[in-house]
Design brief:
Length: 163
């Protein structure tokens, strides 16, 4: 990965169009000028990924262990598919392709959003105070919306219900 400034990151985001251009934004750029954004061209496979504060993957991402973060704000952008063990990333994430995870269980005090452009494949999706927008379909045995917003293929799952 290479470190890029936020102006370069925003130029890349604007060139992508679609979901990435619409949903990928980082409002705390001024506070994190020194850190900048981490950018990776192509597919990436890692044991652990630290999003500190922004990571942009121009390809597919596979994380064997966990996705961590060092700050109370952050942004993960994946132009392709994301494969991970458990998705519990409680900051903003935009996945242009599909999301594959054993389980998705996220809560962020209703501050952040997960946007998936494709389908989600997981054993369960549990929204516990996190906005989740899945533009495709969800293939899983349990879907629960507890506090915020969960939308799958344009259909909103009511709070405090299971689908």
């Amino acid at each position: 990965m290479k470190n890029i400034d936020f102006e370069t990151m925003n130029e890349w985001i604007n060139q992508q169009g679609g979901l990435i251009q619409k949903e990928a934004f980082f409002e705390e750029e001024d506070a994190f000028e020194e850190e900048g954004a981490q950018f990776y061209q192509g597919n990436l496979s890692v044991d652990t990924l630290s999003v500190s504060p922004c990571v942009v993957i121009d390809g597919n991402l596979e994380v064997a262990d966990e996705i961590t973060w060092d700050f109370d704000v952050g942004l993960l952008v994946v132009k392709g598919d994301l494969r991970c063990k458990t998705f519990d990333f409680a900051l903003n994430a935009v996945i242009s392709g599909n999301l594959y995870a054993s389980e998705i269980n996220i809560g962020s005090d209703c501050d952040y959003q997960l946007s998936v452009g494709g389908d989600v494949y997981a054993t369960s999706i549990i929204e516990n105070g996190h906005s989740i927008e899945i533009h495709g379909q969800a293939f899983c045995s349990e879907i629960v919306s507890k506090l915020n917003h969960l939308s799958i293929g344009g259909k909103v799952i009511s709070r405090n219900t299971s689908a």
